[in-house]
Design goal:
Pdz3 Domain; seven-stranded antiparallel beta sheet; six-stranded antiparallel β-barrel; flat
Length: about 500
């Protein structure tokens, strides 16, 4: 054997040994993997056939429900302003008394007028008709001086408050569709048909994450968050679909995308597994009143009621713990006139079973004053029928948004006031310009404040037209219709020339 052949054989041998070692190593890895799998199977039990088809169909159901419901969901931004942001105007700006009391209560000095800034908040809502009515929570829009609505497709509108009801936490705001456009409308379902365990989706704008969808089930029905108030109209749908700040006013929908409740409350500062929503049957009844007349007509029978307890059932001879126990009757009210007494137990309303006091209260809340109802009561260990005509609670007019205080129409529509630059205004705003117009006041209830129009900016053009005098401002501003685009060119003392675009109020 030659030297070359010997070297070749030795090299081949080394290669063969390496391959065998690699195979042994790979075999060891396979053995370790098989051992690990065997340990998992021992802990989990045998693996049966995996049903991915059902899971895929459920995923498609969620997707379809979200696809139906999301287009009609809106993001709501509100501004609550203690005063008009103004400099150089003639009208004095006062700190409202409630703000003074707040600062004094917590040991702070009352701030200077210039220290107060607009207060902003966010929430959700959903469009309920083609006219532009939107349902949301009372607490979302309460006290707002400006309400802005944004849709999933990016369209923005200024909204007006139609009416609001603190007892049910339901409010209606309205946007004005532009000529030729249509609005997506939510399909309203039937909250009475909801069952514990039903799948639901919560839609809204939590924590700034707009148009979010979360899934869960109906955890309970008829929940109250505050006990001891028999006048509270609370019968929340409880869900474990994640609801967080910003979800308020958004819809809770079923697997068909139908709105079955309006998301309203959580326990604690953030979601911990318990969210609460106003049933849509109650919310819709309130919304109808707010749209028609701006306030809610609340039926009244004049009783104080509580849930039937085990001891009550034993004392009164009830076969089960069910119904609303009348503990007091107001003189001169419908219940007294119909002969209702303390100790009566209301078992049914118009033939429908009453489970507890909340059930009776919220069932009555869906009715109108003046209606005649039939109560099935338990008295002297037997059922009796009582007919009653519903009375009405005293009502207060629903709050309306504050009106702008500008003294002319175009200023209110544009959201600012401007005056000719005088030596005094030039010194006040540190302006080198000796001519032209300077913005002296901006209303936070108008459209300009949100786009950074501010006092001290020199107004150069509106929609490309030069503006030098108040007459030109009135002429150009007067030609702009509500909802039309406005493009300002201004010179800011700090930033130089700026373009600011928004829609007229």
């Amino acid at each position: 054997m030659s030297g070359r052949s010997g070297r070749t054989l030795r090299l081949f041998g080394l290669l063969l040994v390496g391959l065998l070692a690699a195979c042994r190593g790979e075999g060891d890895l396979h053995a370790q993997d098989a051992q690990a799998r065997a340990q998992v199977r021992e802990q989990l039990g045998p693996v049966t056939a995996v049903d991915t088809t059902t899971a895929f169909r459920l995923s498609n159901t969620f997707r379809a429900a979200a696809d139906r419901a999301l287009p009609a969901v809106v993001a709501i931004q509100v501004v609550s302003e203690p005063r008009m942001m103004a400099q150089g105007g003639n009208a004095p700006q006062q700190v409202p008394e409630q703000f003074r009391r707040f600062f004094e209560q917590f040991g702070f000095g009352v701030p200077d007028e210039g220290d107060l800034q607009p207060q902003q908040g966010t929430g959700s809502g959903f469009i309920i008709d083609e006219a532009g009515h939107i349902m949301t929570n009372h607490h979302v829009v309460n006290g707002a001086t400006r309400i802005t609505v944004r849709m999933l497709d990016g369209r923005e509108y200024e909204a007006k408050l139609v009416g609001s009801d603190s007892s049910t936490d339901v409010a209606i705001i309205k946007i004005q569709p532009r000529r030729g456009e249509t609005l997506p409308v939510s399909q309203l379902g039937d909250s009475d048909q909801l069952k514990v365990g039903d799948w639901v989706l919560a839609l809204g704008n939590p924590l700034g994450f707009n148009f979010t969808v979360t899934a869960g089930i109906v955890s309970a029905k008829g929940r109250q968050l505050q006990r001891g108030n028999d006048a509270a109209l609370e019968a929340y749908v409880q869900t474990d679909a994640a609801i967080n700040p910003g979800n308020s006013g958004g819809p809770l929908v079923d697997l068909f995308g139908r709105v079955v409740a309006m998301n309203t409350a959580i326990q604690g500062p953030a979601f911990i597994g318990y969210g609460f929503s106003v049933p849509i049957d109650l919310a819709k009844r309130v919304a109808d009143d707010l749209i028609k007349q701006g306030f809610v007509r609340r039926p009244r029978i004049g009783v104080r009621i509580q849930d039937v307890a085990d001891v009550d059932a034993e004392i009164y001879g009830l076969s089960q713990v069910q119904g609303a126990l009348v503990v007091a009757v107001e003189e001169g009210q419908p219940a007294a006139r119909a002969g209702i007494r303390p100790g009566d137990v209301v078992l049914a309303l118009n033939g429908r079973k009453i489970d507890d006091a909340t059930d009776l209260t919220t069932s009555l809340a869906r009715m109108q004053p003046g209606e005649t109802v039939q109560l099935t009561i338990w008295r002297d260990k037997r059922q009796q029928q009582v007919s009653m005509r519903l009375g009405e609670f005293e009502r207060a007019a629903a709050p309306r948004p504050a009106n702008d205080t500008e003294d002319n129409a175009h200023a209110a529509r544009l959201g600012f006031q401007a005056q000719p630059i005088t030596p005094q205004l030039a010194r006040q705003f540190d302006l080198p310009d000796a001519e032209g117009l300077v913005i002296t006041a901006v209303s936070v209830s108008g459209p300009a404040a949100a786009r950074n129009v501010s006092p001290g900016q020199v107004l150069l053009t509106i929609n490309g037209q030069r503006v030098r005098t108040t007459a030109e401002l009135a002429r150009i501003g007067g030609s702009i219709q509500a909802g039309a685009p406005v493009s300002l060119l201004v010179r800011d003392p700090r930033l130089g020339e700026m373009v600011i675009n928004y829609r007229a109020h």
